[in-house]
Amino acid sequence: MEKLAMINLLYDFYGQLLTERQRRFVELYYGDDLSLGEIAEQFGVSRQAVYDILKRSEQSLTDYENKLGLVSRHMDNRLLLGQALELLESGPEKLPEVRKILTRVMATEEE
Q1: Pick from 16, 31, 19: which is nearest to 70 by CA?
Q2: Dist. CA 90–CA 29, nearest whole Å
Q3: Half-sphere exposure of 65 (CA within 13 A, CB side)
Q4: Smaller CB count within 10 Å for the chain: N or C?
Q5: Using a CB cutoff of 8 Å and minimum separation of 24, what contacts does 80-84 make?
Q6: Mind giving me the DSSP string for 5-63?
Q7: Given a cut of 90, is residue 92 above it in pLDDT?
Q8: Tell me: the pLDDT tens digits for 4-24?
Q9: What share of the chain has pLDDT > 70, as a percent?
């Protein structure tokens, strides 16, 4: 997955675990597409400070995912649900397979 998309997805899941300053910098850099210099000017800090905060934020988001695995589970479930949808569209004889997939998704949601 592309870095921008991955950081945004991690941020959607774990952003509230970052500090207010980290959240703001991530939003400005990844969401609003501001440059390091633009963010630095807005906050009265150096570009290096912005870079360091963004790198620590990215590392924190990655660490949260490594420990909790919510994004991975979400992506797996989306894949399984896509498969279930394809099976449903192929006919009612596939309902037992769809049931197995949905049961698997429900089990991962309860973990």
Answers
A1: 16
A2: 44
A3: 20
A4: C
A5: 80/104, 80/105, 81/105
A6: HHHHHHHHHHGGGS-HHHHHHHIIIIIS---HHHHHHHHT--HHHHHHHHHHHHHHHHH
A7: no
A8: 999 999 999 999 999 999 999
A9: 98
Sign of CA dihedral 36, 37, 41, 42: negative
Let me know: does 30 contact 11? Beta carbons within 8 Å: yes
Q: What is the pLDDT of residue 1?
A: 67
Give the pair of three-digit tokens for residue 45.
């800090």
Q: Which H helix or E strand runs over 65? A: helix 47-68
Phi-psi region of 69 (alpha: psi -120 to 50; beta: other; left: phi over 0): left
Nearest partner of 30 among 56, 55, 4, judged by Cα: 4
Question: In the predicted model, is pLDDT for residue 94 greater than 90?
Answer: no
In 41-85, DSSP assigns E strands to none
With 0-12 CB in 10 A as exposed, 13-18 as middle and 19+ as buried, what is 78? exposed
